[in-house]
């Protein structure tokens, strides 16, 4: 199967970046990306000789004048800033070095050049405040997922679906969706899983379609049930604390500033085209301050946990009490009718006794505990 035309440059860069990781299973990557090994190894050979020119034809014009005069250096700085209006001195210095410019100025000098040309506003300086960051130690330990609000196009509303790896900040998906419904989201997630594998955990906010632990369904929506059955642990941000998903919130700031601000789109295809172009820059070109000015793609590698569309059978330990969820999301246990989640209709859940507290049970769906049951409290209330 040849390379697919959709987002071809971005797909090739993703494949090469992952294939060059130490210990990468290239045959498995070929399967995930839907290409034949011959085409893949030809691309890797071209990349070894040509670098990024293997992905797209580049101008042969030198990035810097041999005379290395100050006006030409400033022109290179301001030109790159024109392409990426939200990049500061550190990012521009790093990218100019990668592009082969000799005698790249220090980041502080570049910042001064930007100020001198009126390319940094006081508001931008005030907004450039450091964030307190926490990260998981390895790729795919945690993915963060969310929608970047919504906005109007001339053909309807667009809901940008975003998915980010916590460790590397690699953007796994940036998709223009027509709604936040499970039917809109699930096919795109399946495509991500097919290409990159499965994460250990996905963290979402407290809205549709992820579910909410504050609601009667205990956070188990139709989408979260599907994710859990795949073996992925699902967690939710603390209510009113979006910083729990801080990296994706920061990603949304960049998306808004560099893609959405001041722009309008005819419809979802045009918005998706803009998203795809920016995603390639974000993952492969844009130096990231939190990564020591490395790119997200340089830190990401595909998950060793492969995706299989067929859902596995649900099994529980023999000591558990298993009950099947009935209509209206109800289940019967020890004479009590309990409300769990309508998303679990006709699926088995397990009641696991707490050995340290008599009358208390943890309620599981697959490997995820989603509810705590205290029979003593129910008897006292009844």
| Strand tally | 12
Structural class, by secondary structure, is alpha+beta
Net shape: elongated
Question: Uncertain segments of ≥5 residues (pLDDT<50)?
Answer: 129-133
Any idea of the CATH topology of the largest domain? Nucleotidyltransferase, domain 5
- Tally of individual domains: 4
Strand content: 15-25%
Described by strand count, sense and barrel closure, the largest sheet is: 6 strands, mixed
- What is the CATH level 1 assignment of the largest domain? Alpha Beta
Examine the secondary-structure arrangement and name the CATH architecture of the largest domain: 2-Layer Sandwich
Q: Level of helix content?
A: 25-40%
**Helix count from the secondary structure assignment:** 13
Distance between the termini: 64 Å
Q: Helices and strands, in N-to-C order?
A: HHHHHHHEEEEHEHEHHHEEEEEEH
The CATH superfamily label of the largest domain reads: Ribonuclease H-like superfamily/Ribonuclease H
Overall pLDDT: 85
